[in-house]
Amino acid sequence: MKAPDPQSVLSKVPLQANSLFYTLYNVNSSDVEILEVYKIKEGQDLKTNIVGSWNNKAGLTFSEDVIWERRKDLDGLVFSTASEHVSGN
Prior knowledge:
mainly beta; flat
C-alpha cells in the first residue's frame, strides 16, 4: 500500500522544523513504516523522513540519527544567531 500524501492530510497543521510529529502507515499486511513530518517554515511543503518501521518478526526499529542529522537540509532557510562569551574570571 502506498503511503498517503502527508501534504494533503496535514497541510493545515502548524508544524515547524523542530516538530516531533510522527505518522504511521501500513506498507503491506505485516509491515508498518514510521514517518517524521515537519515544515522548514510556514507556507512551505511538508518534509518527511522514514525514521523507523515495525513488523511481527523484527519488532520496532527506529533511526539512531539525531533529529538535526536527519533534518540537516534546511532548504536555504536564513536565520540570525548571537552568542556572548562569558569569562570564567
